Amino acid sequence: MSSNPQPSALTGSRIRERRLSIEMRQADLAREVGISASYLNLIEHNRRRIGGKVLLSIATALDVEPAALSEGAEASLLQTLAEAANTMAGTARPAEIDRVEELAGRFPGWASLIAQQAARIERLEETLEELNDRLSHDPFLSAQVHEMLSTITAIRSTAAILADDPDIEPTWRNRFHGNLREDALRLTSATEALVTYLDTQTDGADPKQSPQDELDAWLEHRRHYLPEIEEGRDVALPDFSTPATQLAREYIARYTDEAGMLPEARLAARMAEIGSDPLALAHDMGLPLDVLLRRMGQCPCVGEGVGLAECDSDGTLITRRAPEGFPIPRTGVGRALWPLFSALARPHVPIRAELQVVDGQGARMLAFAYAATRDPVSYGAEPLLRGTLLLLPS
Fold it and tell me: How far apart, in whole angstroms, are the C-alpha atoms of residue 276 and residue 278?
């Protein structure tokens, strides 16, 4: 036991709580310690401060460490209670922070319960923030919601035409009926895919891992290079969730198309001839700049330390290959993404920028960004853009 415990103003309350918890009478404790019951009563009501031999004797009689009586609740508990009170500072009846030690000393059970609830609330708020971020940046959810809204708009437009013109020619009426059927099937398919995805997330899967996270992990393991496609073979997918499998198939389909447009051997040969400037290479081979950027971000022939990122018009990252020591965050305004956002603001305008890597070594990266229309345009609809960013060691 400690030889010199320093009692606080609530030592008496802690003595009383401990005595009552072991069902010892005040008179019995006073007799065992060798003081009068009236003096012990004053101590327990914090009207007499004690220390030294008397405190040690009381602690021995109560079978507890003197520090438990003199110091009371752990500092971490007091800090948790104070932080919980501070989060509610704007309420009509703010908590009495100056009496937090009294609460912990007199009602340790209630204090622990409040601390546990405060910790649980904090965890729930963190989960809510993560889920909210996911709703804003999950490409699968974004794509499915966009598909559903687009299809609903098409159905409403077709239905309005049929309702407003009862004398429409039978040939056109049949066409519109066919369009309604096709759009209804599209809407059903999109809805089923969304429901399946949400069900998957509540069926034992980690709700914080999106289909895009699954695909990212697989692509990162392969450094975004698929040699099977380069060699004309099929790619075997891992045990993805259904939505992640859909994203992977879309990625593979585009990879296959673009590998056909620019085989790795041709890219390596032209780089050896004219250098690694993406715009010069794109002009030389007559290829869209965004295709050239993606192929350079995939093929090992470009060298080490290459980075690649893509995002939709709303800023959702759909591809992310980060160079070592140069993180590319999925959300936020990471410096590496600034050229990408600049490209989205100026579609079809090539962007080149030099970035300083914040690693204390003065390393630099060259950033090349370009945004182009993702899908065929249609009357009255805003074009969907996709921005591509390539990072090369300077």
Answer: 6
Task: Tell me how far apart the alpha carbons of residues 188 and 156 are, in angstroms, rounded to a whole number.
Answer: 15
Higher-confidence position of 82 and 342? 342
For residue 265, the number of C-alpha atoms closer than 13 Å in the C-beta half-sphere is: 3
Which parts of the chain are beta strand (E)?
307-312, 317-321, 351-356, 364-373, 385-393
Report the alpha-carbon distance of residue 268 to residue 296 in Å, rounded. 10
Burial of residue 116, with CB atoms counted within 10 A of its CB: 0-12 exposed, 13-18 middle, 19 or more buried: exposed
Tokens 């591809």 correspond to: 319
Residue whose entry in the numeric block shows the structure tokens 């923030």: 129
| Nearest partner of 318 among 197, 207, 216, judged by Cα | 216
- Rounded to two decimals, what is the model's pTM? 0.52
Q: Over the stretch 23-57, which tens digit does the pLDDT of each residue have?
A: 899 999 999 998 888 888 888 887 887 777 888 89
β-strands 307-312, 317-321 pairing? antiparallel
Rounded-to-integer distance, Cα 101 and Cα 88, Å? 18
Q: Where are the alpha helices (DSSP H) in 238-331?
A: 242-261, 264-274, 278-285, 289-298
Question: What value, to the nearest 5°, has the Cα angle with vertex 294 and ends 288 and 295?
Answer: 90
- Give 325's Cβ-side CA count (13 Å radius): 14
Task: Please report the pLDDT score of residue 79 as a whole number.
Answer: 72
Residue with tokens 């965050």: 329
Confidence at residue 115, expressed as pLDDT on a 0 to 100 scale? 78
pLDDT tier for residue 253 given thresholds of 50, 70 and 90: very high
Q: Which of 37, 10, 39 is nearest to 25 (CA)?
A: 37
Q: How far is the C-alpha of 387 from the C-alpha of 364, rounded, in Å?
A: 22
C-alpha distances in angstroms, 228 versus 6, 217, 235, 259, 307? 73, 18, 6, 11, 21
What is the structure's pLDDT at 3? 44
Q: d(Cα 389, Cα 379) in Å, to the nearest integer?
A: 29
Using the predicted structure, report yes or no on whether residue 201 has a pLDDT greater than 60.
Answer: no
* Residue 359: predicted pLDDT: 46
